[in-house]
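Protein 1 of 2
SEQ + STRUCT:
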Amino acid sequence: MFKTSYIITLLSGIGFFNSCTGNFINLQEYEKKAVAYQERQDSVYGNYLAGRIAHIRQDYNRAAQYYIKTIDNGIVNAEILGRTYIILASQGRIDEAVKYANLAREKGDDNNFIDVITASYDFKHKDYQAARTQLDAISEESYKNLIAPLFNAWSYTGENNYDKAKEELNKIANTEEMKTVYRLHRGLIAEYFNQPEEAQKFYEEIINDKSNDMSFRALQIISNFFVRQNQKDKALTMISKYYGAGNLKEMLSSLSDKIKEGDNKTAPIVNTPDIGVSEVFLEIALLFKSIAAGYDYAQVYMAISQYFNENNDIAKVAMADIFEERLMYDDANRYYDSIVKKSEMYYPAQIKKANNLSTEKKYDEAAKVLKKLLKDNPKNFQVLFNLGDVLRISNNQEDAIRYYNEAINSIFYESEKYWPVYYALAISYDRNNEWQKAEENLEKALKISNRNPQVLNYLGYSWLKSGINVDKAAALILEAYEKEPNDGVIMDSLGWVYFKTGDYENAIFYLEKASELNPQNAVISDHLGDAYWQGGRKNEAIFLWKQALVQKEDEEDVNKKKIKNKIRSGLKKENALVIQDESLKESLHSLNDITE
């Protein structure tokens, strides 16, 4: 709920990693020492190196274990201490992190995050005065103007001092970027002190402020309050104003069900100072998570949030997102699996888990997750669409076609946002050797997508490959290129237009550019090899064909048997296709005719 204009301020004022290297580790430098580590496993250096290797591999708990052993064996310096307390904090192990943070401070480490760790530890152990003192020691404006007022307000709440809590929050009351955060926490703290009228006043200010989007977390908190105040209709009216597509639609539906089932005995979401301050750190973490440069910060703040409240499912999903960005899919899925079915976050968590499994090529497991979701909601477009994708990618085209068609049948109205399902269905029909149906769905996707360049390219390339509708094919590919001139696959198709019409020099020019953009693509390497051969560069052609045999990207779209034959026997020259449209020929000629 913070405005992103505060990100730069935060990044300039908060430095976690000035005493450690975080993820920015030279992988090759330390991997090559793994053998040496095996020979010296029980030594101090062995523990240190084992920690570094685990750190590189993002096995943070194991890295912390070895760093702690290194420190216990007498190597105590700021660098190792810094890595240790940051890693421990990033795993939510604040009670352990505080020990090494304090040792680092004694060694001269002036990292502000030491104060954050210590303040969090003191707060958790109900030494609220010490917590405030620790955080107030930080001089940077980003702490004083952003974090400290919220943190201190909840610490005074822990001391049952409502007036001081309000006084702290009032420090941010007039900051435009923080007005929603201010109102939310004023409402939460008013609730804690049994002041429902005051709480409702601040919550309704959030609802009525059209200049700010309300987060899903705010919807949860405020609707929960209305339920407990016997104002279910107000809660339902509030969430009905939010149109939900995809995951959000399911989340809103689940939240509506929870409102209908609740009563005045429903437990409040935030009912302790710990959970209150957990919300503060969650909001800060989500702010950092909104930009790639803030992911390390987001993970640590998210972990602190979970230190205070391990049951916040939004925090779990956000932490899983961070692990996904680091390609740590098993860690992400462990977070998703910890979310129970009754949670509003269950559906999006399971969808994301299935996506992760598919990314790891665990297609059967991904399909199993999606089919389980489908049992509860057999007409859910997103689940049907995702299941079709998993089956298509795993080359089960007949079942993919069935689920794509079911997804289309679940659509209530035609909209541009649905073009991908027609496009995906066309690909499955094409791979199932049902070209007429593929062509029909590509033309449908083209119509409702406002002539999306990917659809233009696929249809044009398919015609070109079959030697039909040559003018239309070239025109579609040229239009796709004009819309997406830096797309390697589209660039490949443009090069293929020149190749199929016998202009090998221009074909080589564009296919080389395509290869630069997508250097691991098997189809592009195969095409460039063909162009080199016809252009008289036969050694280079054979090299590219050999590359195409081992490359993984789009490997299902190359005929490896034909490539092996080309390596053995070369490539015969085919009759060139002819473009009849003079204006189209002129467009291709003027685009980049390198022969002149």
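Protein 2 of 2
SEQ + STRUCT:
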Amino acid sequence: MKISPLQLARYQYEPKLPGMLRNGISEICVKDGSATESVADQEKIKALFPNTYGKNEITFQKGCNTSAEKKQVVGVILSGGQAPGGHNVICGLYDALKATNADNVLYGFKGGPSGLLDDDYIVFDDAYINQYRNTGGFDIIGSGRTKLETEEQFAIVAENCKKHGITALVIIGGDDSNTNAAVLAEYCAAHNTGVQVIGCPKTIDGDLKNEDIECSFGFDTATKTYSEIIGNIQRDANSAKKYWHFIKVMGRSASHVALECALQTQPNICLVGEEVAAKKMSLAQIADYIADSVAARAAKGWNFGVAIIPEGIVEFVPEFSVLISEINELLAGSKADAFNALPTWEDKYAFIENGLTKESMAVFAILPVNIQQQLFLERDPHGNVQVSLIESEKLFSALVKDNLAARKAKGAYNGKFNALHHFLGYEGRCAFPSNFDADYCYSLGYNAFMLIQYGYTGYLSKVSNLSKPAEEWVAGGMPITKMMNIERRHGADKPVIRKALVELDGAPFRFFEENRAQWAVDTAYVYPGAIQYFGPSEVCDTTTRTLALEKA
């Protein structure tokens, strides 16, 4: 297989570890922190996790290793969507495991959680692992979105672990995957299976974070990759001077990716869903806000610009959320079959008009026809609108076009408006990890094995102080239950890890808020360029603008 010179060079990169993990396995000890409680719904969470709730946070430090010496057989899975650095979590886990005892074994279960259920696996060795060091993607064992949440599934997992002598599992995933890890850990503890479960925080969306988890892995690389492309588009816009580019970026539940990309590139417009929700902004108000920038720049002779749109923005618009709810109700059960049987869009439109409230129909009527039709595409498994299929970048450019036409009719606007559209999603999920993500992920995996070696279960591998050089990073663990609360899911109360939204009083948003009025009118673009892997530390090892501002 032919490989690129960069890939060959990345194989040889040696990730940096936190100082306390560089001492050698025999010189790492545990420092106990305080007992924990869940972020909310403490009594309910405690009742659901009697064997794993309320444990202490811990950190590793230099000292005599007091863990029991025994052969370790560990299993690992990748769960959910891809994120840069996942391979390095497995490499760090493997290296720590082998450094402790050459007879230790690491099983990789293929295709995500389903691999645990189907007993589909590979046993890692040096030759196989070395092909994936510091590379992007999840192709080392693949991933999947099967949820581990039933007693029957847990029993199968426990039986498969018993068959192979596996005493610990590492689940690398996002908030849902780590929720499943916590529930599996509780099951294993309650049934005395002898299997420990450790989680690792992954998601490019950045919504798995809190006071303990400063950053989920993959966020750094993905946002730098998107920002490079946005910078390229901005340079093109500033060269051609005739297009407004509407760029949708990943992030359905939170706007962290959009905000970080804005901090890196300084576009004319960046919508932040959390602000839209807090201000109860309507579609018309958002369109007016963008049109103000278009008009102000046109007055300077600049008929071009860039707007960043979060993937899930429409769900933050109150009137649109109500519309979505009504559509879900309108097509519930057999009513969907009746709707789909109608022969023309005109017939379907009449059906919709009959079924929606006057207020929601008013919102629906202003949408472009292609967006109206996207709201009635194939439902998700729960019968709901698949909001991620809505081309919100095209929605807002169409609304802005109508807004500007109205202004022109009143003599209040005399510019030109030509829109181009982009969606940046898969481009960032499997990029070569930045040095930060390569180091961070390797540390998370190495640290996960230390948690296993010391007998912890239901813990998340935690590396903090990430705005500092890697030597100053702090490694340890926290009970997953600390991040949990109760939410209503599909008609039932479920324990879940609380998603982290953009904090409107946080330093990153405040910095954006202080500067966006100037960016909206001026051409203040920043062109980040490609991720750098070699050179001065301030070029190669920097973390995100978000984290730098939070820890300033």
